[in-house]
Amino acid sequence: SWNTANLVTGQVEVANKFAKGLKLELSGSSALNSAKRALRTKIDYQQDNLFARVNVDALSPAVTADVTVSREGALVGAEIAYDINSGAVTKTNSTLGYAGPDYLITLQGNNSLNLFQLAFYQRVTKSVEAGARAVYDYKNPEGGVSAELGTKYILDQDAYVKAKVDNAGRLGLSYTQLLRPGVKLSLAGLFDTARLQENTHKLGAALTFEA
């Protein structure tokens, strides 16, 4: 492809050629009016209970890899990034999770285990969903804990409302209505309940078209 910014990009992809579930991808880009260049290689491998990826940025150069293993609802995942020039690990993330018939719980350790996140989701009834999330920042023990609760109520097949509140007193509300097939209207607001008299609130609207 060649776009109006004079950026030329190309991509080659081979899937299931050398092994079932293995996909190889080579992509690159070059700006004709500058020295901006990019060259990346991506390897994906997927089986029933395994998904692994390796991304190599040849010009940085840097390597990012992640793997996820699941079995009978349980899930374990890890991600690592390595800078070849400095010889240092720049990112490590890990995840534990379990998916039940109508609920999901996950525990994530990010930023070299300096940031932890615990999340829970449950479908209470056919029309009610609920979730909660707590985050702890190890590097910021004072005020480093945040939490929020959220819920979704399905009014009918064309409309639903959402609400969430966090420990800072911010209340979020939204209403989504399907106007016609492929056209959806959303109205939302974020209100600071601790400063109701101040101009800190936000209102928004979105109109989405889908083919």
Automatic annotation (TrEMBL):
The lineage of its organism: Eukaryota, Fungi, Fungi incertae sedis, Zoopagomycota, Kickxellomycotina. It comes from the Eukaryota. This is Mitochondrial porin.
